[in-house]
Amino acid sequence: MPDLSIARCRRSAIRSLRALFLEELNAQFRYEATHLRRWATSYLVRLDRRPIGYGSIRHYDGNRGTVFDFYLLPPFRSHALDALRAVIREADADVLECQSNDRFFASLVPQLAGEVSIDTILFAPAQSNRLSSDGAFRRRRRADRVFEHTAEPVGDFVIEASGEVVATGGFLLHYNEPYADLFMEVRPDARRSGYGSFLIQELITECYLAGRVPAARTGIDNIASQRTLTRGGLRECGRMLRASIK
Fold first, then answer.
1. How far apart (Å, rounded) are the C-alpha atoms in residues 56 and 54?
2. d(Cα 73, Cα 138) in Å, to the nearest integer?
3. pLDDT tens-digit series, residues 16-54
4. Helix ranges (DSSP H) in the chain
5. Which is the most buried residue in 41, 168, 219, 221, by most CB within 10 A?
6. pTM for this structure?
7. CB 143 within 8 A of CB 160
8. Domains located in the chain, CATH noted
9. What pLDDT was estimated at residue 128?
10. Torsion sign (Cα): 171, 173, 174, 178
11. pLDDT score, position 246
12. How far, in Å, CA of 111 to CA of 143, rounded?
């Protein structure tokens, strides 16, 4: 019988395995900051004393523990269910969460969990729609009078129309390289005028010029945001799956 073992480990112990996971995913990993900010507890998976994978848990969402990152080297994936069950037992986890575009982990969730819920849609670059606007895209200046933001931080870029800032946006860099996360907010009285989509389109360009690949996410119920991102030149590439463990 193969000897499958699970042991809590430091982040450095899974660094090379995580590099292989991110290369295989080939997309933005939503919870990369959970690792970078040391909010994760990780477990090394060994088979006959050889490291073959890992599982990572987060504890700040009101549950006993959420397995949000799980990876095994491809030659050993016949042991996937046993390994994931062992990580769950060792960590006393009660929730699984993953991206649908993480095909390996996503394929295991329905086998170990109950009803799967979706709360977030993930976006990746698509073909540009070549939008134009009566607003001007530029970098934000120190002297700009910026409207009060209620959902997103004030971005480094703005849309100016009739001499006023009607939208701001930017991109966050605490995701796995080379990906960055786009964000923006439009002044309430300037919404439904195309400024948001035009801003996203221009932010995509700035993101590439900065050496990053643009990505974004929004809530499953936020239809307006989904349309803005799609018109701005992004496409749906995945969804966040979440389920309680049986």
1. 7
2. 45
3. 999 999 999 999 999 999 999 989 999 999 999 999 999
4. 15-25, 32-36, 80-91, 103-112, 195-209, 223-231
5. 168
6. 0.92
7. no
8. 4-113 (3.40.630.30), 124-238 (3.40.630.30)
9. 93
10. positive
11. 87
12. 56
